[in-house]
# Entry
Amino acid sequence: MFTIKRAAEQVGISASTLRSWERRYGIVTPSRTEGGYRLYDEADLRALSLMARLVEDGWTPSTAATEAIGRLETVSGDTTASDARLAPAVPASPTTGPGLPSPSADTLAAAMLAAAAALDAAALSVVLDEMFTVGSFESVVDHHLLPAMHALGQAWASGRVSVAAEHLGSHAVMRRLGASFEAAASFGNGPRVLVGLAPGCRHEVGLFAFAVAARRRGIATDYLGADLPVADWVDAVATRDPAAIVLAVSMAADLEATQQVVTAVHDRHPHLVIAVGGHEQDLAPRDVERLGHGIGTAAAALAQTLTGHDAGRPAEGAAGRATRTHRRA
# Structure
């Protein structure tokens, strides 16, 4: 039997997503301890894993749940059925299948903004639960979460919401990303990468979401956080011997500090891959990789850079790449 935390880790989703799928779609019905805590068995994990695979392949959560339940019921009634029955099928059309349509990005952004403005942490959690059930982690971040965070930032800048509201929303999102980052820990067994921001740079939601996507892509990702001094970057590279480091240039004001980190690290590790993302990444130094603006495609691009085809092989480490030519954008 598995606790909700352990079950979520096994499936590769967050505990909040598991609860939402259970509540909204009835994909599993766990047993309960005397204290009321959920317990999941192997059959529950099979159902959740299949649903997660279908969602990853483009199914809506409602149709994925129905399909997963149907397939598993078929298999349970046929002892000769093979695992091939569980292979993902062609994604369902958004207009077909049971269940209500997923809420639009604008609807979710408005709900998130209203919850933050009201300083209603519980409502904000509900909105985030809803948001992370409408597609894969990467598609939710790119098409729902980051646009909603942009709308929240604009509302703060225009005075429509308070500083407290902006902080409440940002912290709720970072906690949710933190849960996803931990849930993806078992996937990150490829090359090691350090992800963080240069000194004075603090817009980290997009970069942290990328760190989650990188783990999900198989990259062993260490997230160092925001506002990291140049000397700490140098020490971290020396200590962890990564295959690459990744920073973000979210605004033009981040450029100078990012350049300082790039220069300091490159001077000591000239063959280390240095990559950048963020809205203003085109302003970044010439001798770095630019990852683009979608977190899923960025994680795939970095994996391709590091291994040539995937992130499944062990990392060489910075010291072992002394003879390798550093790719430059």
User: Anything to note?
Assistant: The chain has a mean pLDDT of 81. The chain is about 50% helix and 10% strand. The domain at 4-84 is CATH 1.10.1660.10 (Multidrug-efflux Transporter Regulator; Chain: A; Domain 2).
